Amino acid sequence: xxxxxSQLTKNFGGLRAVNKVDLAIAPATIHSIIGPNGAGKxxxxxxxxxxxxxxxxxxxxxxxxxxxxxxxxxxKLGVARTFQRTSIYARLDVLENVALAIRSREGxxxxxxxxxxxxxxxxxxxxxxxxxxxxxxxxxxxxxxxxHGYQRSLDIAIGLALNPAxxxxxxxxxxMSRGDRETVASLITMLRDTLGLTVVVVEHDVGMVxxxxxRITVMQHGTVIADAPPAEIRGNEAVRNAYLHGNFAQ
Length: 250
Ligand SMILES: Nc1ncnc2c1ncn2[C@@H]1O[C@H](COP(=O)(O)OP(=O)(O)OP(=O)(O)O)[C@@H](O)[C@H]1O
Prior knowledge:
- By secondary structure, this protein is α/β, with parallel strands linked by helices.
- 37% of the residues lie in helices and 24% in strands.
- The protein has helices at 41-48, 71-77, 94-106, 116-132, 148-160, 178-193, 206-212, 230-234, 237-242; strands at 3-12, 15-25, 30-34, 56-61, 64-65, 79-82, 166-170, 198-202, 215-220, 223-228.
- The strands form two sheets. It has a six-stranded mixed β-sheet with strand order 6-7-8-3-9-10, with helices on both faces. Strands 2-1-4-5 form a four-stranded antiparallel β-sheet, with helices on one face.
- Strand 9 and strand 10 form a beta hairpin.
- The protein is globular, with a radius of gyration of 18 Å.
- It binds adenosine-5'-triphosphate.
- One of its GO terms (cellular component) is plasma membrane.
- GO terms for molecular function: ATP binding; ATP hydrolysis activity.
């Protein structure tokens, strides 16, 4: 397993938002976490990515205990995340957004203080990453002027700039048109198939999750109620009951 979560627990006051959660993520897979509103998905995600600390339990990445590590430390180890709201700088161009992330990975200061060769290397790498996510030809566009779907692709490019082995995505399809969702879904598949990355996705679009994922973990009231490949999840009665209004008809 590339990532293992064991008995992870987090309380908010009297509320146990994440309750003794176990999770095992296999390398080079797309593993989705779904569940109704308030199930604890985002809290679990934040516990894994280090933005909050658990009261109990542990998170392991490969052979290392990373429980409570900061996002910066995790990034150095190869764990990246993308956010529900995009983390792009709208007033910088597309290339510069990725270049910033590369410089930050390398601990470089602003470009004027760098030798030209170092800066060229950064820009070449940024250009390569943008090509991978389908943004070739859009390097000079101001990020804020990109269409919504492309902004999400840029977000993913920024994540890739950290050179991760594992990328965690918080609702990558949220608020998108059908066409944009298809674009981002293909991109996520490419991350696994072409780049060999492991992708963990928290997502509300159950229909897309079913098509996209190798494995799905379903949460309700802070606990895991099912963990299986999509075909099994589809037929799972506890999961059906957790979702009112027949979400699985999609
Ligand atoms: N910072 C916080 N302080 C207090 N309670 C919180 C906090 N964050 C989350 N909660 C509560 O913890 C529970 C789990 O919330 P969480 O956001 O993890 O669920 P979720 O499955 O991601 O839901 P959604 O699908 O609506 O985003 C909810 O009852 C929520 O109200």
